Amino acid sequence: MNPPNKMSIVVSLYDNCVSCNENLVAYDKDHKKIEIDTTLVQKEFDRQKAEYDALQYQRDRATSYPSIQDQLDMQYHDTVNGTTTWKDAIAKVKTDNPKPSE
Fold it and tell me: What is the pTM of this model?
């Protein structure tokens, strides 16, 4: 999921919108200006931002996990040596980046 973007929100909220600039000036296919309800756009932006922010722990975890190759190596050595290196590494990432309670 990408962070919210007001221009893309305008395009998604207005079916006849084919383009929108950074100033939230939008146009239809005939290059006619579309009146934009900025309150509606801001409300949708805030909703999407809250949703995006709520998933920050997932993005943090994704960058904290060891590579797949390292995880497979850990699992192999855990099986051979009877250790829990892989489980410990994964548990640490989850503990360091907890899922927020709902």
Answer: 0.74
